[in-house]
Amino acid sequence: MARGASMRNRAKAGLVAAVALMAAGVPGDVASQGTGAEAAMVAAGEWVRGRLPAGSVRLDPHRTGRSTDRAVAARVASALGAELGTLEQSRACADVADPSTCRLDVAVLLAIAEPAIRGDRAVVRAYAWYRQNDPRSPVGKGSWEVTLRRTASGWAVEGEQRLD
Q: How far is CA 113 from CA 34, 65, 98, 138, in A?
């Protein structure tokens, strides 16, 4: 009897945590895994997104060197308020050898790699292409390695390293 009660209490605690995350605006399928890989990808994506121009966002599930499962990418994109797409769909260049001729049809294109999780730490690589006010290079790009720490309420950014 005690074992059954303990299992019910753990299930209730998980449900309470998922409801709290959903109330904070995190979709249910990410909220139910608040400390899992998808939630780490969302936390890193939010951190990177906060450093880039405002506007529309697209998530490229293939640009990280390893394709992210499309269902996972769709849930992460939803949590970030982004749509799925690719760099090829998003960027147009009249002359690929001349960066001044390139344009991006969204404010930001993100690519977020699946995290390396060890214990209560996760490392996530994130890449971004974004509009910038530079006529010589209207599309900027950046890449980061974001270190996250697992907390009671999800993942928190502990540090970052610019990779480019």
A: 17, 8, 28, 25
| Closest listed residue to residue 85, CA positions, set 104, 99, 66 | 104
Question: In this model, does residue 47 exceed pLDDT 50?
Answer: yes
Q: Kind of pairing, strands 139-151 and 154-162?
A: antiparallel
Is-contact 54 105, C-beta < 8 A?
A: no
What does the block give as tokens for 125?
Answer: 């690589």
Distance CA 65, CA 114 (A): 11
Identify the weakest region by mean pLDDT among 7-11, 30-34, 48-52: 7-11
Alpha carbon distance 58, 20 (integer Å): 26
Determine contact, residues 114/74, Cβ cutoff 8 Å.
no
Structure tokens at 121: 């730490």
- Residue 3 has phi, psi (to 5 degrees) of -65, -45
- Best CA proximity match to 111, nearest among 156, 146, 138: 146
Assigned token pair, 127: 């890449």
For residues 9 and 11, give the distance between their C-alpha atoms in angstroms, rounded to a whole number. Answer: 5
Global confidence as pTM = 0.77
